[in-house]
Write a structure and sequence with these properties.
The protein has 11 helices and 15 strands. It has about 300 residues and is an alpha/beta fold. Pfam families: DDAH_eukar.
């Protein structure tokens, strides 16, 4: 069992935009009055293409799929929220809080993922959307997975339901470690991957956004599973997406910690050195438009593809 993969999926946006429906529970989004919708899309597309190029230049296998024109899916650049793949052969699809995001679960994309990963089982959790009181679990936005130790870290929020989380854990054999964490306005933070990242030998985590009653539980779980804990601050998390990182590897087996340029520039020299000790490369990518208008960063743009072992 490995924590990282060298194959990822990224969705090329055709209608990227601020999504007011999603913004109801994502205080990281900003409506940018100084840009036309066309400019927002054009800049986001340039940022996306640059990110793909830089990842490929470092030897990561990047599969890209272009979103259909006029699909009405302004957040499609963040595919990690609606599916995940697992080395045991499962594809999991998730219940999404925003109705427009449910349209991202296109059958032709699902079939491509199944083929790429040789998935033998499709665990469909979207039935939670159809319940009398719908609940949600937005993929590896809601879940930060320690794949080796089978631990699912989850900050409870309107997008991260304990009921749906337990169903995931029962199906895939994970243990849940849950906590409350708070965003810039004191609200429950919308996605766990905004404030923490778990790598193979380390974890980057903003402990000071976690409720005081839950901090020791989270710290103990991370350290008990052998991770070096690299702390980031509330300000780095809320203002610069410093927790929204992902460790991947390249075809040569070198480890790469991927983050946005905004996150990189917010980090101290000591933090960077500690991260570099666990990775052959720190890759930082400029995605300012995607971060501001979309309220998500580079980790959200990367869906890991784990081929069945």
């Amino acid at each position: 069992m490995k924590q990282t993969t060298s194959t990822i999926l990224m969705i090329e946006p055709t209608g990227f935009a601020y999504n007011p429906e999603a913004a109801e529970t994502n205080s990281f989004q900003r409506e940018l009055q100084d840009f036309t919708p066309g400019q927002v899309q054009d800049i986001a597309l340039l940022e996306f293409k640059n990110a793909v190029t830089e990842l490929r230049n470092l030897g990561v296998e990047v599969i890209t799929i272009r979103d259909p024109e006029n699909a009405g899916t302004p957040d499609s650049v963040f595919p990690n929220n609606w599916f995940s793949t697992h080395a045991e052969g499962q594809l999991v699809t998730y219940p999404m809080a925003s109705a427009s995001r449910r349209n991202e679960r296109r059958e032709e994309v699902i079939e491509q993922i199944k083929h790429a990963c040789q998935c033998g089982e499709h665990v469909m959790l979207e039935f939670f959307e159809e319940q009398e009181t719908p609940v949600f679990l937005e993929g590896t936005g809601s879940l930060v997975l320690d794949r080796v130790n089978k631990i699912a870290y989850a900050a409870v929020s309107p997008r991260t339901s304990l009921v749906a989380l337990q169903h995931f854990c029962d199906k895939l054999g994970y243990e849940a470690v849950t906590f409350e964490a708070y965003g810039p306005a004191g609200e429950l933070i919308y996605h766990t991957n905004v404030m923490m990242c778990v790598g193979d030998t380390y974890a980057v985590v903003a402990l000071d956004v976690v409720d005081e009653q839950d901090r020791e539980k989270l710290y103990t779980s991370l350290s008990g599973s052998g991770k070096e804990i690299i702390k980031i601050s509330k300000e780095q998390t809320h203002q610069h997406f410093a927790g929204n990182m992902l460790q991947v590897e390249n075809q040569q087996g070198e480890r790469i910690l991927v983050m946005s340029k905004a996150a990189y520039e917010s980090l101290t020299q000591q933090q960077l050195e500690r991260m570099q000790a666990h990775n052959e490369h720190n890759l930082y990518l400029p995605i300012h438009m995607i971060e501001k208008a979309g309220g998500g960063s580079i980790r959200c743009m990367i869906a890991e593809l784990f081929r069945k072992r």
